[in-house]
Each structure stands twice: as C-alpha cells, then as structure tokens.
Specification:
Elements lengths: L3 H7 L9 E9 L2 E8 L7 E11 L1 H7 L17 E9 L11 E4 L2 E2 L5 H4 L17 E2 L11 E5 L3 E3 L6 H19 L9 E4 L3 H12 L5 E5 L2 H9 L4 E4 L5 H8 L5 E6 L6 H8 E9 L11 H6 L3 E4 L7 H10 L9 E6 L3 H9 L7 E5 L1
This protein binds zinc ion (2 copies).
One zinc ion binds next to loops.
C-alpha cells in the first residue's frame, strides 16, 4: 500500500507537503474564519509558496467589511496581498526558482495580452479581475497569503536576498507602491525637496527611497508622534505634526515660500489633496498613491494656475518591487523597522481589531501562518 509520501510524490508534491492547510477564509462581510483547505496545486507557470508572513493593511479592512470589488466568492476567498515565504513546489514550467528559495512578491499579475499589459502597465490591466484571461491580484481578485500556502505567478515573484528577514520581505511589496508612484512622476528626485503626506507603511518606505535616491529635503507630515519619530529615524529630514502646527504653513516656511518640488500623497485623508495643491511649488508635481473613503473636493483651478502636474498610480507596478529588493539589499530600505505587531493565523480577527482600533499604535501588523 502506498504511504503518504508516495502519494504526495505522485501528485507532484514534496514528501513533506501536507494535503491540507489552515487558511483564513472570508465567508461574508465581517465573517473571517480560519478553516482547513486543500493546499492549492501550482499551474505550470505558478509556484506554490509556504507563506512565512503576510502583512495586513487598510485594504484588508475594506475587504473584511465586504467592500472590495471582484474578489473570489465568499466561502472560498482568502485575502492577504503582502506576503513572503519559501518555495514549496515550483510549477512544471518554472526553472527560475527551486524548492527552499526565499521569495517576496508583487501583488499584481496582468493578463499579458491587453494593450496596457503589452506596454508594461499591468496594474492597469484591461482584464482586471478576469482570472480566465490570466489577470490575478493575490489576496484581492485571487486567493492570497493569509494561509499556510499560496500559489503565485512566477513573473510576480522575486528572490529575497539572504541579508533580508521575512519582515523585510513583507514590506518589499509596500515599498514597491511608493517607488512606482515616484516612477510614474518621473523618478528623478535627486536634489528635489519632497513632501510626503501620511507616515503609514507606504509613506515610511517612500521616505527611505527618496533619501536613497538623493532627494534634498524630505518633509514628512502626519498626526501620530510615534510614526513621525520613526520617519525621522528612517531618514526624513523634517517631520511635521499636523495636530500641532499647520502643515501647509510649515512646508512653505521650510521651502522659503516656494513649496515642495514634489508632493507624495500617501495619507488617504480627504483634506490631503487640497494640502497637496497648496504645498506644491509652481511647476511642481503631485503624485497620489492613496485611496479615499469617498469623493474628495479640492481647488483644482489653483493646481492649473500653478502649472502643477498630478500623477496617480495603483499598486506596485513597473517592476518596482525589483527596485525595492535592490534598495533593501543595499541597506537603504529598512522594512523590518515598520513591523510592530505579529499574530498567529488563528488570531487574525484580533489582528484586524488591533489595526482598526489602532490598539498599541500599530505601524505594520503581520500574520504568521
Ligand atoms: Zn496592502
Ligand atoms: Zn492586461
């Protein structure tokens, strides 16, 4: 009689690979349960990864509440889009990675066949959410990393250098978001004065990237003292607590009245676009990488009068996760410094509560399946 290892080998799995795993599954709005699920099998161009850690963010709270489009159906859907781990099974067509390789990810995989994907703009894939056409965004339109195992397209995986921890690996995905925003806004930041609004994980990784790329002054604006202190430790040249001073006046004063050459909006606060308009220099640029709770109002005419360009970007496109890995490997991007809370998968509901109620001042909360 065949033993379990033989069965696993016949199924293309390693002898140590179990048939089932623990996974957080969303059964409905606010109903996330940790249950047993079959370990997914990778397609030929996919890799099965043993998840070491998966970060949680504001998007996951929207998902938890049931406010996210194009997800897999309730009862089947495992969220989690900021994960890292170790290759368990490379798909049949994969020779880029081997069992045991440590990897980090970008969340988006474009269809590869639409106009936008053909020019590399895969986070703007015209087949967004269409799994049959090859699009998938892990943890959003496809099952993700709040589970012991996850499958991922080989083209969206990156080797995690040995000097980096899994905590660093989680923040690589986040850092890719800010880097893509800078990329879309022109990318050449050496010597520029840059204002960063919002000291969340995207803002804090963007601050580090800006310093690494030679920005002159990096002015970080927020409302939580602990995050601003962290931002200062990570390279912000000036921090402004918007609860204590008027951030617009403070930025204008720091820049001799001219304003920032570039303003990066990472806060998602409804008043932030107006602040961007007021603190950005004539002829400067604004890049918006945040999402807002609803429509926002701001004086667009003032932006036109000042000849300011507004850019937006979604997710971590443009192969910017590769750039984030390089910056982290060179010691210029510290992701682990942002991880403030760790929870086992079974306690994921508590982890979400900690984020929602900001219990213990979390920066990045990670789940360890
Ligand atoms: Zn996220
Ligand atoms: Zn596409």
């Amino acid at each position: 009689m065949a033993n379990e290892a033989d069965v696993a080998a016949a199924a293309g799995r390693g002898p140590d690979l179990p048939g089932t795993m623990r996974a957080a599954v969303l059964f409905g709005p606010g109903d996330l349960r940790v249950v047993d699920r079959d370990v997914p099998a990778p397609e030929p161009d996919e890799v099965l990864v043993r998840v070491a850690m998966c970060g949680a963010c504001g998007t996951d709270l929207k998902i938890y509440d049931g406010h996210f489009p194009q997800t897999p159906p309730f009862g089947e859907y495992t969220p989690g889009h900021e994960w890292t781990g170790t290759v368990a099974v490379p798909g049949a067509g994969v020779d880029e990675f081997a069992v045991g390789d440590r990897v980090c990810i970008e969340a988006h995989r474009g269809c590869g066949r639409c106009d936008n994907c053909l020019v590399g703009r895969y986070t703007a894939c015209l087949n967004y959410g269409n799994r049959a056409k090859g699009h998938r965004a892990t943890g959003m339109t496809a099952n993700g990393g709040f589970a012991e195992y996850a499958v991922h397209h080989v083209g969206s995986l990156y080797a995690l250098p040995p000097s980096l921890s899994f905590e660093d690996g989680v923040l690589i995905t986040t850092a890719g978001t800010g880097l893509y925003g800078l990329d879309v806004a022109g990318g050449y930041v050496a010597g520029l004065d840059v204002a960063v609004l919002g000291p969340g994980p995207v803002g804090l990784t963007t601050v580090q990237a800006l310093k690494a790329m030679g920005a002159a002054r990096v002015i970080l604006v927020g409302t939580r003292a602990s995050r601003l202190e962290l931002g200062q430790r990570l390279g912000a040249s000036h921090v402004i607590n918007a609860r204590e001073v008027d951030p617009v006046a403070a930025i204008l004063e720091l820049t001799g009245g001219a304003g920032a050459d570039l303003t990066v909006e990472c806060s998602g606060s409804p008043g932030a676009p107006q602040q961007c308009a007021e603190v950005t220099k004539r002829g400067g640029k604004i890049v918006i990488v945040a999402f807002y709770p609803g429509p926002v109002t701001f004086d667009l005419s003032s932006v036109v009068r000042k000849d300011i360009s507004i850019h937006t970007s979604r997710g971590e496109g443009g192969n910017n996760v590769k750039r984030a890995v390089a910056l982290a490997a060179q010691g210029r991007l510290n992701g682990a410094a942002l991880v403030s809370h760790w929870f086992p998968l079974e306690d994921i509901a508590t982890a979400f509560q900690v984020m929602r109620d900001r219990l213990g001042d979390p920066v990045k909360v990670v789940i360890v399946p």
